[in-house]
Amino acid sequence: QQQVKQSPQSLIVQKGGISIINCAYENTAFDYFPWYQQFPGKGPALLIAIRPDVSEKKEGRFTISFNKSAKQFSLHIMDSQPGDSATYFCAAAADRGSTLGRLYFGRGTQLTVWP
Amino acid sequence: DAGVTQSPTHLIKTRGQQVTLRCSPKSGHDTVSWYQQALGQGPQFIFQYYEEEERQRGNFPDRFSGHQFPNYSSELNVNALLLGDSALYLCASSERWNEKLFFGSGTQLSVL
Lengths: 115, 112
Known about the structure:
The complex is a heterodimer of chains A (115) and B (112).
Chain A: E1 4-7, E2 10-14, E3 19-25, E4 33-38, E5 45-50, E6 56-59, E7 62-67, E8 72-77, E9 86-92, E10 95-96, E11 99-100, E12 104-105, E13 109-114
Chain B: E1 5-7, E2 10-13, E3 19-24, E4 31-37, E5 44-50, E6 53-57, E7 64-68, E8 74-78, E9 87-94, E10 102-103, E11 107-111
Parallel strand pairs in B: 2-11
Antiparallel strand pairs in B: 1-3, 3-8, 4-5, 4-9, 5-6, 7-8, 9-10, 9-11
C-alpha cells in the first residue's frame, strides 16, 4: 500500500512557467513532509520541507502548500528553469522521539522544463 | 567536507550470490539509513542504524542485513540475491536530532 500518493507522473513546463506537483497521504501520524530533487546518477537531495503547524513555506522559487484537513501537500516551482529538469519526490515521516522515523516516498514526478 | 560516500558505484552479481555495500556518513552524522530504489520508483526504506544497532526496519526479508561500525560507517549485506534485488541502493545519513537526511549517490546493483 502506497503511503504517499504523488501526481502527476510526468510534467512538461515551459521556461518561466509554474510547475505544480501534488501529494496526498492517509496516516495522520505523519508530521514531517519533505520534497527531494533527484538528477540522473545522483541520490535525492532535500529541497524544502514543512511541518503541519504551517500552511505554506517558501524558499526562493520553491513553495510548499500544506492542507492538513485534506491531507494533501504540493510543491510549486515558480519561474521554472531548464536546470530544474529532474525527478521530484514528496515524502512523509513521523517523529519517533529523538530521531526521525522512516521516510515514505511518493513514486516521483519527472519534470521537464523546455527552454 | 565530504558528503555521504558509497562504494562501489556499480556492481554486477548473479542470482544466489551475496553482496556487501558500504557507506560513510557525512562528517558529524551518527545515524545511517538504507533505501532501495527500483527503476522509476521512489526509494523504499530498508533499515536505520544508530549506536551500532538496527533501530527501525522496513518490509524487507531477513536476506537484507546491516551493520554500523564505531566510526558510524555502515554496511548493507544481501544474501541469496534474486533478480528482483536489482536496484539503486541509497545510503542516507543524519544527525540523530536533525530531520534532514543527506543521501549518497548510491550503488547500482544488477543481478543477472
